[in-house]
Design goal:
Elements (H helix, E strand, L loop, with lengths): L2 H16 L9 H11 L35 H4 L7 H9 L1 H4 L13 H13 L2
Length: 126
C-alpha cells in the first residue's frame, strides 16, 4: 500500500474517533424536557421531594433500592445494580426486563437519542 493511501486511512481513522456522531451526542437540556414529559408523573428531581416513585436527584452512582424512606420491591433492593449510564440505558429501555419484579409500571423509552439525553440530564442532578 502506498504512503498516500496509508496517510488517508490514518486521517480517516482519526476523524472518525474525534468527531462524535449525532447518535452519540447527549443533550442534558433536551433530557430535562424528556424528564418532564416522561418521568415527573412519578419521580422528582428536587432533593427531598417525594413522589410515587423514588426521588431521582443523585441517582447516577447510587445503588438500586437505596433511597431512604422509600419502599422498594425486593427485586430492586436485591438487584445488585448501580445506576450508571450503561445500566440506566438498559433499564430505561425495558425496566421489567432488567429488574423482573419491579413495581415500576413504565414500559420503557425506546428512542435512543431521548434516552441518552435523559441520562445526560440525570447525570447533572448532583
Amino acid at each position: 500500500m502506498s504512503n498516500l493511501k496509508l496517510s488517508g486511512l490514518a486521517t480517516l481513522a482519526v476523524l472518525s474517533v474525534a468527531v462524535p456522531s449525532p447518535a452519540s451526542a447527549q443533550d442534558a437540556a433536551a433530557g430535562e424536557k424528556v424528564f418532564k414529559i416522561q418521568c415527573t408523573a412519578c419521580h422528582s428531581a428536587v432533593p427531598g421531594r417525594k413522589g410515587i416513585g423514588p426521588n431521582l436527584f443523585g441517582v447516577v452512582g447510587r445503588s438500586a433500592g437505596a433511597v431512604p424512606d422509600f419502599h422498594f420491591t425486593d427485586a430492586n433492593k436485591n438487584s445488585g445494580l448501580t445506576w450508571d449510564a450503561t445500566t440506566l440505558d438498559r433499564y430505561l429501555q425495558a425496566p421489567k426486563q432488567v429488574v423482573p419484579g419491579t413495581s415500576m409500571t413504565y414500559v420503557g423509552l425506546k428512542d435512543d437519542t431521548q434516552r441518552a439525553d435523559l441520562i445526560a440530564y440525570l447525570t447533572t442532578l448532583k
